[in-house]
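Input chain follows. Return structure tokens only.
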Amino acid sequence: MNYRKLGNSGLMVPEITIGTWLTLMQASSIEEARKLIHTALDAGIWLIDTADMYNRGGAEERLGECLKDIPRSNYLIATKVFGPMSDHPMDKGLSRRHVMNAVEGSLKRLRTDYIDVYQCHRYDASTPLEEVCRTFDGLIQQGRIRYWGVSQWSAIQIQKAIHICQFNHWTLPISNQPIYNMLNRSLEIEVMEVCEEAGLGLLVYSPLAQGLLTGKYQKGLIPEDSRAGIAETSSNFPFKRMTDENFEKLERLKGIAQDHKITLPVLALAWCLRKAIVSSVIIGASRPEQILQNAQASGLNLPDTLWNEIEEILQNHPVDQYTGNRIGHGVLKGGY
């Protein structure tokens, strides 16, 4: 496993992160869940991503149980706050009241004294940004959290938060957790550049497009035991990406992966990691062998010509609305 710094901080994180959104809650037993987490730790994947709203605390609670016998210094926990934790109108968002209550709940469920990276799960338009920034700085001063970050914030929202923290001499955020994969490259429009300039490392989620980039889905075929085939998880599945055009692209990408003696998931993860600003990619898994397979993407040395070949297949790079130029791949400051 290779490691990278998380943004401008000194925190080193593995290039692969194990996520818990579905991973732990779909495990048939606590023993199966523990096996997944321990497999990740043994593979050098010691950053674990979760959120309080995953099963309304269920994922955090199960994670705490899985980690209870592991020395706290051996792993990092990144969790998030924003989503509703009950039907009460005050039990959500990023108000100081809710965040202060939420962090105590997460600490208790996770069975820990501190959270390594505490992230705003979404932007809260109903709470002043100054209140949000001050609250997270305070949590760091109190020792409840070590670092803070955001998730799925826009470029201007991130810039505003940076300016507020700088003006008030508050602790700056160090991470952003956005969606990013071969089929969804919206991150490359402004946000990626802003994060790079502001020193926020990217912990990207859904790097395999919830399984579309594993190759398990084929045109007209949805496995019954897959995320798209299970009623409880299908509501969040990106069915809009299941087009004839994308299936044709997937077939060509499978061929490229085979030519380089790797799997399509490993190729898709390495594609995300080709960007230095990406600190880690968050994977899910239902079996230990999936974790070990995906870990092979870390440190994978592939030629630049391969990315050019993939770009010609994808043909989905963002385009500047004024110039028509590509954003992201192949673009250098000052021109191509």
